[in-house]
Design brief:
The chain is of the alpha+beta class. The chain is built from 2 helices and 16 strands. The protein has one domain: Immunoglobulin-like (Sandwich), CATH 2.60.40.3680.
Length: about 290
C-alpha cells in the first residue's frame, strides 16, 4: 500500500518552500563597487622661513578614451604660489610634487616660471625617489618626486607658476581623483588656497561627487562640471580634496526570480505525480470492491 502520509508531508514541505521563494525571492547581491585612487600635489619635506601667502590651483580632467570600465584621462594642473621671504637673510623653500594611487600613470611633465618680481630668487628643479623630513603621510608612497628648490633673498616676494600634466587610466567603477591641500606647506597665517577642478565629458559619468563637502561650490556647464573649494589653510584639516568620478553606476542588491520559477515547476511535478498515484490507487480499490 502506498505511503500517502510520507507523500503528503513531502508535498506540504515543497509547497511551503515554493511560497517562501515566490514571496521573498532568492537574493543575488552584486559585488561592491571597485574604487581606484589617484592623489597628486605638492608637499614641503623641510622647514622653511619662506611663507606662502596664497595659492591657487586651476585643474582639469578630460576623458580621452573609454573601453568598458577602463577610462583614460589627461589631467592638467596650473599651480600658483605667492612666496614671500620677510626675513633678513636668504631663505629656501622646497616644493615637492608627489603622485600616489592605484591607477596606471602613462606620462608626466612639469614646467615652471615666475612672474612679478623676477629678481632676487633662484629656482632649481630635480627628481628624487626619496625624501626625508616632514611631509604628508600620503606622499610617502610616491615612486618619484619632482622637487623645486626656490631661494629668495631677504625681504622679497615672487609668484611661482607650475604647470603639471599627466595621463592616467583607471579600470574601475569609481575613480577618486584627489589634489593635495597639504598642511606641510609653509602657509602664512590666514593664508587661503583656492582649488578649482573642471571635469569635462561629464555625460560619460553616472555621477560626480566630491569630498569634503564644506567650503565647496559646484557649477554645471555645457559638458562639464566645476568644483570650487576656497580653503582657509589655518583651519582646514583635510589632506586633500577629491572628485568622485562614477565611471559605472553601482546597482543595489536585487532579486532573481528564476529560481522561484524552477521551484514552482518542481512542486507542480510532485503534485501531478501524487494525483496520478492517488487516482490509480482508488481505481484499483474500486475495481477490487466491485469484484
Amino acid at each position: 500500500m502506498p505511503n500517502f502520509r510520507g507523500q503528503g508531508v513531502t508535498l506540504l514541505v515543497l509547497v511551503i518552500v515554493c511560497v517562501f521563494v515566490q514571496v521573498h525571492g532568492i537574493g543575488v547581491v552584486t559585488a561592491p563597487p571597485f574604487d581606484m585612487n589617484c592623489i597628486s600635489g605638492f608637499v614641503s619635506p623641510v622647514m622653511s622661513d619662506v611663507r606662502i601667502d596664497e595659492a591657487h590651483l586651476d585643474a582639469s580632467a578630460v576623458v580621452t578614451s573609454t573601453a568598458g570600465l577602463n577610462y583614460s584621462y589627461e589631467v592638467h594642473g596650473c599651480y600658483r604660489f605667492d612666496l614671500r621671504n620677510s626675513g633678513d637673510r636668504n631663505a629656501t623653500v622646497m616644493l615637492a610634487h608627489a603622485m600616489t594611487g592605484s591607477v596606471s600613470v602613462h606620462s608626466f611633465s612639469l614646467d615652471y616660471w615666475t612672474s612679478g618680481y623676477a629678481e632676487g630668487h633662484t629656482a632649481v628643479l630635480y627628481q628624487s625617489t626619496e625624501l626625508l623630513g616632514r611631509y604628508d603621510i600620503w606622499a610617502r608612497h610616491s615612486s618619484a618626486y619632482h622637487i623645486l628648490n626656490v631661494t629668495l633673498v631677504n625681504e622679497t616676494s615672487v609668484v611661482l607658476n607650475i604647470h603639471v600634466r599627466f595621463r592616467i587610466s583607471a579600470s574601475a567603477d569609481i575613480l577618486n581623483l584627489g589634489f593635495a591641500a597639504s598642511d606641510s606647506l609653509p602657509w602664512d597665517n590666514n593664508a587661503f588656497q583656492i582649488i578649482e577642478l573642471s571635469v569635462l565629458n561629464k555625460t560619460l559619468f553616472e555621477g560626480i561627487g566630491f569630498i569634503p563637502n564644506t567650503s565647496v561650490s559646484t557649477l554645471d556647464g555645457s559638458g562639464l562640471t566645476t568644483l570650487y573649494w576656497e580653503l582657509n589653510m589655518t583651519s582646514f584639516a583635510e589632506k586633500y580634496v577629491t572628485a568622485i568620478l562614477v565611471q559605472n553606476e553601482y546597482m543595489p542588491p536585487h532579486y532573481d526570480l528564476r529560481p522561484a520559477a524552477v521551484a514552482t515547476v518542481v512542486v507542480l511535478v510532485f503534485v501531478v505525480v501524487d494525483v496520478a498515484v492517488l487516482r490509480r490507487y482508488f481505481t484499483n480499490h474500486r475495481q477490487a470492491t466491485e469484484q
